[in-house]
Amino acid sequence: MINKKILGLEDPLKKRLLWAVIGLFIVLLLNLLISPEFFEVSLQEGGKLRGNLINILNNGARVCILAVGMTLVYATGGIDLSVGSVMAVSGGMAALIIRPGYLAGLPVTDPQPPLIIIILLPLLIAAVLGLINGLLVAVVKVQPIIATLIMMYSARGLAVLMVKGQTPTYYGVPFTKIGTGYFAGLPIPVWIGFAIFLLTFLMAKRTAVGVFIEAIGENKTASRYVGIRTTLVVVATYVFCAVCAGIAGLIHVSGESSTSPYNTGLLIELDAIAAVIIGGTMWGGRFTLTGSIIGALIIQSLTTTVYFQRWPYEYSLVFKAIVIVFVALIQSDVFRLKFRQIMKLKK
Amino acid sequence: MGEILKVTNLSKSFPGVKALSQIDFELETGEIHGLMGENGAGKSTFIKVVTGFHSNDSGLIEFDGENINFNSPNEAVKNGISTVYQEINLIPMLSVAENIFLGRQPLKKGLKGINWRDLTERSERAIKRLDLDIDVSLPLNTYPVAIQQMVSIARALDIEAKILILDEPTSSLDSNEVQQLFKVMRKLKNQGISIIFITHFLDQVFEITDRITVFRNGRKINVFETGNLNKLDLITSMLGKEYKELESELWQKDESKDGEIFLSVKNMKKAEYMNEFSLDIHKGEILGLAGLLGSGRTEIANLIYGIAKSDSGKVWVKGKPAKIHGPKEAIAYGMGLCPEDRKVDGIIPELSVRENIILALQAKRGIFRYLNKNKRNEIAEKYIKALNIVTPGTEQSVKNLSGGNQQKVILARWLAANPEFLILDEPTRGIDIGAKVEIQKFIIDLKNNGMAILFISSELDEVVRCSSRTIVMRDRHKIRELTGSEVNEKIIMNAIAEG
Fold first, then answer.
1. Cβ pair B348:A209 closer than 8 A
2. Is A246 exposed, middle or buried (0-12, 13-18, 19+ CB in 10 A)?
3. pTM for the predicted model, two decimal places
4. Pick from A211, A219, A286: which is nearest to B362 by CB?
5. CATH no. for residue A322?
6. pLDDT tens-digit profile of B396-413?
């Protein structure tokens, strides 16, 4: 009882968060049992840490960033299916800014446009797409799943049209540093992911954004009656989510030195949504950003494990399904109650 | 007559709260037994334990001579204890017949199809049993709430119920509908069914019950034979203090002079919503709005607060012309609104008491001027104390509080935002006398401190006691404005009747 209080476990949100952490540990523990070398981390020249754990963080950064944005949307009682397509738009945009003559068959020109433009312009486009999502949901009152489904199609179409269905390649620092560079021993995407998480976390805790989003998700009418600008807040969450997707798109493209409008961010929205749910956020209500990050890491650990063990890629899909079902079950009060009853009967 | 249900020494605790302690309860065959007590007295918990929704910590439950311990409400239903809740838990778009047999439709032999003829016939029989004559093939939502309530009873009874538990079935019924329900209850009683009847309405409990059990703070206080009981004893038993005392200390109406006009509305109207009306509200005044349900009371509140947009009309706040297009602007002008339906429009159920209380103040301050943690706790603690909100702590989810305490949380929310003008739409509906008196008293204090209040209530005596001026409404018209000694129940009723 006392322990429960210290951990704050009377709060159902924290309870679900704890179960997510346990889920992550179980995934890592399985690796430890199969092959302890999974955990080897080496320090390479130039102070770069390498190893599976670093890979999980590095490759997981994109889903983490998406999950942060998705968490806020999900807590307002919405969902954003378009994040993968928005990634493709923002990535493609960056590629075209770096190599404006690509479609005409021209090589990369020197000097490249300033980095700030390569970054900000795609994010601006992403924000506009998010704004359209938000307006459709909050003003036109289209169901979130439909509104963002429309955007999922149309942004993907936009991404393909932008580059006429081709796969632009480019090279040149400093942009490619974003996806491949290191800072203080860790890959830059990890730092970006961490920074976005931290900023969002502070925004949710140090401003009233968090409590307003939860209030709107729980009871929109009541929130409006107490004077919260519900439309504004909801639109803002979709814009924020799309900007997160834009950032993830930049990281993706920058790491690959090319961008395929068909494959960038394909189906990644499902990973992001799964991460949020595994993390314990409720659809319309209380949310936990930490939980979403842990959810994203669970998903990425599975993928990395499958690669490391050289199992076919398809395995990772099955594993994901199993883990999501497992976490959903242990988070469910009903299931745990039934489970306890069954154990009691056996005794 | 034998006992159908006998509960001995029943206790139940939740983390931090002793919800029921050593309850004894007896229900005889063919008896209508009232269960009364303030909000939070333990009535609902008691029912939930008996019907297997919660498990009990200790104590015995004997049903029909056997010890029982149901694991779920379903099991209770199968064994003959059916409960009809205050909210109608049926599906509005399905037909009456489908609703009655939902989940246990009669199937055709061999083929896995629903036997519609059997379904219709049996529903008709179930409905006839309640002396109702309605077409069971029509969707449930084509019927008024009272009929829907009867349908839930029909559904409960079709499962061969021996005990029927009615949890505040009358709170949304008018007096004719209540009589119809009572007729059905008497009929069931004659058929040997035992009924536990939970209600807040004193008159009803005297009219229909054989015996009354009173709970207070999770304990059984008394069992009365209704026949030789007077109201005062019952109320005293429920509150644990003399009601008379409460009454007298409260209602010394001081005819304080009206302050300056806070709000002035001229010729406001909205087509097919509310006919043209004008009103003034002064600082330090409670303006009552009396009238039947649907007479336009809530509509006036919504128009003033900007929830509904008026077609025409002018508004002045403190003498200056004002345009109010929505709650946000109304609040900026110093207004606040406690909505009629606190569950739907008021509380944010999953959020804590603290978060619910600070919400309006925070919205007023804006997103970025977030109150710091100490300040938030301080405000919550202050109002929990001031309004006597019963909660294990500031972090409790507001959904776990009883109705009266939820209402107090909403009131606290507005007081924290410090408005100059508060619209209270049915602030005491569905809550027990104790909390009711407390809230009324608080409202009068607010008035004495200079707040302007628009007070809407369907209970005339409440309007009369609280307000110094009253507007009488009928059919979406403002028909009379009464002041001073004119504000009494008789004149209001005549006004409503004459139009």
1. no
2. buried
3. 0.77
4. A211
5. 1.10.3470
6. 899 888 888 899 999 999
